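Q: Start with the shorter request: fold the first protein.
A: Done. Sequence, then structure:
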Amino acid sequence: MDQAPRTVIKHPRSAYLIVAFVALCCTAIVRGPLQAAVYLVPLGAALYLARTATIVDAAGLTARAVFGSELVAWESLRGLNLTESGAVYAVEQGGTQLRLPCIRSTKLDPLVRASAGRIPDPRA
C-alpha cells in the first residue's frame, strides 16, 4: 500500500526576523533583571511560529497549535469554509469547523497539492 507523503505547512521562516527585531527592541528597555521578563514576548512569538502548523497526511488534516493539536480525518471532512477575512476552516460532516493555521484563502495551493485530490481546487 502506497503511503501518502506527510506535508507540513508552516509560517515562513522570514517571520523569525520580526521576532529577532522585537527582541532587539526589548533590549532597549531592559535595565534590570526584573525587566528581563519583557523577553518573554519575543520568546512566546518564536514558540508560536515554531509550533503552529497544518499537517496533511494519509490520516487527514491536523491543525497543530502551541498547546495541542486536532485531527480531521479524510472520511469525516465535508469541505473547506473560506471566510471573508481569509481564514480557512475544515468542515466536518457534523458541521464542526476547525481553523487551519498557516493557511489563508489566497494561499490554498500547498494544501490542495498535499491533499492528493481529496480537496478540490476552488478555482477550477
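Q: Next, the second protein, separately.
A: Sequence, then structure:
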Amino acid sequence: MDLANKKERRRTQSINSAFSNLRDCIPNVPSDTKLSKIKTLRLATSYISYLMKILDSPYENCTKLLSEGFRADLTNAKRSTQQNRIETQNFVYIVHLYNEHVNSFEKSSPSKLNQN
C-alpha cells in the first residue's frame, strides 16, 4: 500500500474517532442510536447553544435551564434561518477546536505521524 493511502486511512480514522468522541459528549442520546456525521454536528451545536444560553442567563433562568436539561432533538424537522445561523456559528467553533486539537497533537508527537 502506498504512503498516500496510509495517510488517507489515518486521516479517515482520525475523523471517525473525533466524531465518536463528539457523540459521546452529547447527553440524552440513547447509546444504540446511530447518528450521521451531520446529525452529530447538529446535536453538538445545539448542545453548545444550550450551554451558552446557561452561561449567559441570570441565575434564576440558569437553574431553570439546568433543571429542564438538554433535550437531544433526534427528528429531521426543518430548521429556521436563525437555527441554521446559530448552528453554522457553532460548527465553525467546533471545527476551530478540532483543528487546534489536531495541530497540538501533531506538534507534540511528530514521530507518531511518520509511523506505518
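Q: Describe the second briefly.
A: The longest helix spans residues 81-108. The chain has a mean pLDDT of 80.
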